[in-house]
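The following block was generated as part of the benchmark described in Methods. Ligand: 1,3-dihydroxyacetonephosphate.
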Amino acid sequence: MKPLIAGNWKMNGLLADATALAEDLKARAAAGGLACELLVCPPYPHIGPVADILSESGVQVGGQDCHNAGSGAHTGDISGAMLRDMGCSHVILGHSERRADHGENDAVVRAKAEAALAAGLIPIVCVGETAAERSAGQALAVIARQVKGSVPVGMAAERLVVAYEPVWAIGTGQTATPGDVAEAHTEIRRVLVGLVGEGAEQVRILYGGSVKPANARELMAQHNVGGALVGGASLKAEDFWAIATSCP
Ligand SMILES: O=C(CO)COP(=O)(O)O
């Protein structure tokens, strides 16, 4: 399977910024020849316009979260079906910012992943340890616990993406070393074998945390790294494109 380079735009920009970025990516994608799949995850209000611009471009569009219920009295939330209806193929779930800002735990993330799958979306389930957990020697145990708790059991491997995002590397400019990344991704793969069986080798495991054009090539070359989840650098088409063209 091709690597997946996903841009998480988080809560940034206004509509004009989102559409300008989408137009720029569409123009670059028209040349074709990328070795990876591309995905952008705009803030909710911008998904429709961005999906319209990118509809024929080959660049996919995703959400940054969805509710675990199909519909109902959940003020301010959105469902997987709504994302699908707007043209989304993927949804990021359990990002550490959601876990921290909204108290999401593994059980909630798993319920959301099940709802996303039921709506026809591919969930990108995020895991990753904090700086304190890493200094305490707990990084791999935390990652394993989060994967076991957050990934739906027995699902088809091609319908799942996992992202390893060490919390201390997000937005800090401090990237995990290629060795840390390889070790964490190997542990995630080991846990996935127990959850999805033989197909576990097919699950793409993305790395996220201060991925930039300057470090993307080395990170993407690590064993078990199937792409990147990019925050800040995905807001500049030139940088996002440079990362996309770093895929082996
Ligand atoms: O959280 C991230 C992507 O989901 C990573 O963010 P940065 O690339 O800005 O560190």
